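Practice problem: predict the structure.
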Amino acid sequence: MNDPDSVRRRTRAREDSETFRETLAAPIPNQTYRSQVDLIDTRPSAIEQAVRLIATLLSLLLVGRLIAGLFTTSPTNGYLSFFYAATNWMVWPFQAIFGQPPINTTGGFFDWPAVAALVAVSLIAGLLIRAIRPPSI
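Answer:
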């Protein structure tokens, strides 16, 4: 079993394993071992953050209008008039579809135009953010 081919193969295998151990033991200087996925910057840009902030504030105003309309008995109430003044420009296009909120009611009412405006603000903000964000790899 000591033919020259088998001796050469064993010697070659030993050399390969020693070389392999040496390369594992010595790291390559100035090399980064991260994948390309880790190098992508996923932080939102300043414009994206501004769009998110504005959409959040508008959504809070619309939710405030909806909640104030549900629990307020008088439309001349200070809270309700504040939310109406702040959000009428967003709700106005949807009042033609869903109708005007009642003026003289004895109890609260569900403001469907405010819900539609809330959905529209969310959709527009999502589309703007998608347009602003750079394409992913």
